[in-house]
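Researcher: Let's try something more involved. This one mixes different molecule types, so please make sure each is placed in the same coordinate frame as the others.
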Amino acid sequence: MNEAVTPIEAAIHLDRVSKVFGAGTDGSYRAVDDLNLDVHPGQMLAILGKTGCGKSTIFNMIAGLTEPTSGTVRVTGHDPFADFDFFRGKIAIVFQNDRLLPWRNAIQNVELGLEMLDLPAIERRETAQLWLTKLGLAGHEHDFPHALSGGMRQRVSIARAFATNASILLCDEPFSALDESTAGRLRAEFVRLVKENGKTAVFITHSISEALEIGDRIVVMKRPAMIAYDVSFDGGTGQEERELIRSRIGDVLAA
Amino acid sequence: MSETAPQAGSASAIMLLAVLKRLGTSALPFVVVILLWQFASLFFPRFLFPSLIDVFWRCIEIFSDGTMFKDVLATILRILAGLAGAFVIGGALALLMVRSRAVDNFLSPILTLFQGIPALSWVVFAIIWFHGVEFRILFIMVMTTLPAFTFQVLGALRGMSRDLMEMVFSFRPTRLKLFRVMIAPAILPDILTAWKVNLGNASRVVVVAELVGATGGVGYQLLQQQQLFDMAGALAWTLQLVFFVLLVQGALTLIENTVFRYRAVSERAI
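Model: All components are placed in one shared frame. Result:
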C-alpha cells in the first residue's frame, strides 16, 4: 500500500474533500464524501470505479472546474479553483470526448493552449506541428474536425494537451468512445508520451484492463467517492501479481 | 486523353444545365409576378398599374440623380445606424442577462413589453419626446429592433456548448481570450442570422419613421408620391429599399459561406 506524502511533496493533495450538489435543498446529492488522496510527482494514477461513483467530480475538482463543498484540494501546493491564473500552462486535460473547436482546423486546435501562454505565433505553430507529427497526424494539419475520424480527433486533443508542456495531466476516460483497436494503440502511445515527458497523470477509467495498462497506481472508488482499494505497482510487477490485483479489483467493484 | 476530354465536356454541360435550372427555378416566381403586372398595366389606368418599363426608368433616374440618390443613402445610413445601435446595446444587455439571473429577471419582462409596442407608437412617442429628426428616427429604429437583437444574442450565448466552454476554461484564458477564441466564433452564426432578420424589420420600420417628420429619405419620397398619386414613383422608391436589403442579405450569405466553411454538410437534406 501507499506511503503517506505531505501536501508539499504531493503533486496533488486532497484533504477531507466533500462535494454536495444542490447543498441546502431537499434534492441534495453527496457525490464525494470526506476523501483523502495524495498523488506523487511523476505518478500515473488510475482512478477506477463504476458509473456514478464520483470519479468525474473528483476529476473536476482537481482540474479546478468544480469547487469542493468542504475540505482542501491542492495541486502543486495551490488551490486549482481559486488560483485560476496560476495554473495557466500547468494543468492539461484530455476529455472523454475530443472537444475540438469545430471552427478551428487540427493545428489551430492544438495551438489553443499555447495561445493562452502568449507564445509567439511561429513558436506556437512549430510546437503544434511537432505534436501532430508525433501523434501521426502529419498531413492533416488543415483538416477541420468534421473531416477527421473519431480516433484522429482524439489524437488531436491529446496533442493539444501535451503541447502546453503542463506538468499535470488529467484524463477523463479519453479512449472510451473509440473502438478497442484504436483505443489500444492510443493508450500505448499515451503511456509512452507521459513517461517520456515525466508528467504526473490522473486517469479516470471504468475499465480494469485499461487501469492496469496505464497506471502505476490504481485507486478504486465506491459511491459516494470513497477509496475502497488503493494499490501501487511498477514495471517489475509480474503477470501473476497483476492478475491478483485484477481479481481483487473485481471483488471490490462487485462488493 | 481522347476518351476523357468528351467526358469532361459533358460533365461541364451537365453542371451548366443544373445551374441554369436552379436559376430558372429561383427566377420563376419573379417572372410570373412581372408578367402579370405588365399584363394588368395594359388594361388598368397608369396610376393603378403603371408599366414596369416606366418603373425601370424611374429607378434609373433615382440612381443617376445625385439629389434623389442622397435620399436613398440617407435611409440606408439610418437603417445601419439603427441596427448597429440596437446590436451594441442588445449585445451588452444580453451579456449582463447571461451573467446575472437578477438582471435577466428584471430585463426580460421589459423587453417582452417593448416587443408588443407597435412601431407607429414609437414614432408618436419620439415626436412628442424629442426635437431632432435624426435622433427621433434613430430612437425609433433602436427601440423597435432592440428586443429581437437582445433575445437573439442571449439565445446564442445560452446555446454555447458547455463542454467546449469547460475545455477552453481548462487552459485558463483571460476574459479577452475567452471571448476571442470561444464566445465570438460560437455565437457568430446566430449574430449573422439576427442581422438578416432585423434588416428586413428595420427597412420596414425606417419608412414609417421617415413618413412622420423627415425631410428626406425613401419614406419621405414615398409620401410625396402618394400625394402626387404616382404609382410608378412609389414602386421605384420601394424597389430602392428592396435592392438594398437583397444586397446586404447577399453579402451576409457570402460571409456565412466563407466563414462557416468548417461546418460539415450532410448529403441528405432535412
